[in-house]
């Protein structure tokens, strides 16, 4: 649930002084390749040569419910009307072009689309259109189909962000100012923001009855998941809380199609509600509704983007602590990292069961020290703790600076199959070059401690998606032979 379905409109364009048959023949071959990949697409009935063709194609795309488009230059192409299509189309657009495919057809059958992409790019610029252009956008039909398949994932991120409402229940905890970034850039991205108070959340919870059928159904699900775990007596309260959030989301989507939560989770939460919400946060995230901790709206957005890019349940973790040298000495494969590149990704207990090697329902140790120091855990129960599974990962964050400028980072690596020997939902992360990346990107550009985690290597998709969304500053790890800005060469 909560994920857009991309339906692609594949439209060919042809410059009127070139044979239209070039585009017609070539685009049909692309369509055949897409069918073999099971891509959901509509092949335009119109090949665009002029503005009237453009209007027909736009109407067809709308009538057939397409929300992303690929404009294919089967020959040189009409740069003015092909970019007009992108301007008027309601959704992300990709541009690509036909490679010459036969040495025996270069006299009457040469399309010059390699050349045509240049004025196309220029016209996109003067119209102020952000379109997706692949790394090398000229190819034979099978190569074009591969590019389009990749674009589907990029378009899914774009559509999801534009259709997203971020529901916050706050305020943020004291001393967590880094999570309280300005919300104006969220509106600039196309998101809607709905801010509520912690008391609003408590009222919603108190108005929810334990006897409601939805609460009982959720409780049964929870008992099936963690029925043999510790502290399962807290489950009725957690089930009631989850149902209240789901009901609120359904009633408050408004004009948007998708929603995520950024919720207060401590310290007054425990005394007001009588539990820790981590397990519920993990369950909603596994259902496609990420819930970030500490009213971290950009964290919730980043988790959602990871979900869209990877198709897998993400998580939100602190880039938390270093790995002791005597522990790194025990790891036989550092995945191309130095011991200093290792770190532990941790949070209290919000990582979903599907991403944990072992798990238990526990209590939040840090909160218990201050809230229940000399008693059995009660109001601090509700964390889902355990070792995060070994997996390829991408850490990612889209964030705003204090002066409302968006930037993003992404880095790929692995979660190691090694017991972290500590509490919480936690794993040992190995990201090549992380030591320098931490210093000259995360610290130098003032990123917060929260990072979202995609359990797949999707840096390529994330990079293109945030660029398409208009984020100019995108940071990735640099190889050892390249210096970061400001890095001391000595």
Task: Give a structural overview.
The protein is built from 16 helices and 18 strands. It is an alpha/beta fold and 490 residues long. It has 2 domains: 8-161, Rossmann fold, CATH 3.40.50.10940; 163-475, no CATH class. Strands 10-11-16-15-14-17 form a 6-stranded antiparallel β-barrel. The mean pLDDT is 94.
**Shape summary:** globular
Instruction: Return residue spans where pLDDT drops below 50 for at least 5 consecutive residues.
Output: none
Sheet with the most strands, sense and barrel status: 6 strands, antiparallel, barrel
Average pLDDT confidence is 94
Helix content: 25-40%
Radius of gyration: 25 Å
The strand order across the widest sheet is: 10-11-16-15-14-17
Give the strand content.
15-25%
Count of domains:
2
**Structural class from helices and strands?**
alpha/beta
- Care to count the β-strands? 18
First-to-last CA distance: 51 Å
Number of helices: 16
Can you give keywords for this protein?
alpha/beta; Rossmann fold; 2 domains; five-stranded parallel beta sheet; 16 helices; 18 strands
Brief overview, please?
With 490 residues, the protein is an alpha/beta fold. It contains 16 helices and 18 strands. 37% of the residues lie in helices and 21% in strands.
Write the topology of this structure.
Elements (H helix, E strand, L loop, with lengths): L7 E6 L6 H17 L4 E3 L7 H13 L4 E6 L5 H10 L4 E6 L14 H15 L10 E2 L1 H22 L1 E7 L13 H6 L2 E6 H9 L6 H14 L8 H17 L6 E6 L4 H6 L4 H9 L4 E2 L4 H14 L4 E8 L2 H4 L13 E6 L12 E4 L1 H7 L9 E7 L3 E10 L5 E10 L9 E6 L3 H10 L6 E5 L4 H10 L4 E3 L15
Parallel strand pairs: 1-2, 1-3, 3-4, 4-5, 6-7, 6-8, 8-9, 13-16, 15-18
Antiparallel strand pairs: 10-11, 10-17, 11-16, 12-13, 14-15, 14-17, 15-16
Helix pairs in contact: 1-5, 2-3, 3-4, 5-12, 5-16, 8-9, 9-11
């Amino acid at each position: 649930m909560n994920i857009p379905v991309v339906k692609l409109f594949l439209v060919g364009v042809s410059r009127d002084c070139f044979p239209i048959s070039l585009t017609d023949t070539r685009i049909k071959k692309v369509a055949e390749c897409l069918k073999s990949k099971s891509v959901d697409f509509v092949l335009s009935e119109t090949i665009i040569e002029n503005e009237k063709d453009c209007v027909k194609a736009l109407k067809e795309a709308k009538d057939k419910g397409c929300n992303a488009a690929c404009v294919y230059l089967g020959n040189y192409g009409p740069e003015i009307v092909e970019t007009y299509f992108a301007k008027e189309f309601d959704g992300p657009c990709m541009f690509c072009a036909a490679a010459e495919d036969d040495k025996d057809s270069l006299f009457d059958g040469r399309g010059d689309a390699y050349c045509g992409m240049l004025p196309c790019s220029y016209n996109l610029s003067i119209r102020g259109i952000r379109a997706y252009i692949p790394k090398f956008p000229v190819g034979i039909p099978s190569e074009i189909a591969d590019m389009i398949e990749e674009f589907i994932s990029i378009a899914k991120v774009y559509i999801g962000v534009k259709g997203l409402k971020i529901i916050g229940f706050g305020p943020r905890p004291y001393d967590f100012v880094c999570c309280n970034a300005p919300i104006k850039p969220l509106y600039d991205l196309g998101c809607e923001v709905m801010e509520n108070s912690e008391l609003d959340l408590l009222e919603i919870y108190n108005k929810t009855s334990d006897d409601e059928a939805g609460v009982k159904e959720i409780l049964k699900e929870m008992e099936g998941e963690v029925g043999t775990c510790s502290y399962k007596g807290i489950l009725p309260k957690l089930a009631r809380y989850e149902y209240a959030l789901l009901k609120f989301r359904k009633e408050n989507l408004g004009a948007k199609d998708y929603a995520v939560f950024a919720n207060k989770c401590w310290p007054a939460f425990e005394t007001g509600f009588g539990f820790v919400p981590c397990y519920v946060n993990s369950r909603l995230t596994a259902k496609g509704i990420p819930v970030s901790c500490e009213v971290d709206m950009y964290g919730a957005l980043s988790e959602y983007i990871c979900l869209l890019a990877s198709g897998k349940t993400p998580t939100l973790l602190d880039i938390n602590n270093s790995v002791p040298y005597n522990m790194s000495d025990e790891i036989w494969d550092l995945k191309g990292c130095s011991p200093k590149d290792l770190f532990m990704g941790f949070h209290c207990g919000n990582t979903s069961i599907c991403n944990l090697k072992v798990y238990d329902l526990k209590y939040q140790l840090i909160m218990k020290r201050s809230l229940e120091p000399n008693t059995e855990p009660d109001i601090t129960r509700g964390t889902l703790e355990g070792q995060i599974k070994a997996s390829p990962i991408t850490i990612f964050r889209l964030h705003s600076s204090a002066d409302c400028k968006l930037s993003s980072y992404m880095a790929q690596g692995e979660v190691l199959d090694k017991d972290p020997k500590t509490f919480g939902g936690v794993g040992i992360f190995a990201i090549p070059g992380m030591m320098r990346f931490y210093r000259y990107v995360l610290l130098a550009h003032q990123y917060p401690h929260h990072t979202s985690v995609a359990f797949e290597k999707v840096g390529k998709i994330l990079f293109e998606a945030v660029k398409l969304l208009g984020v100019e500053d995108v940071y990735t790890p640099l190889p050892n032979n390249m210096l970061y800005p400001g890095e001391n060469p000595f």
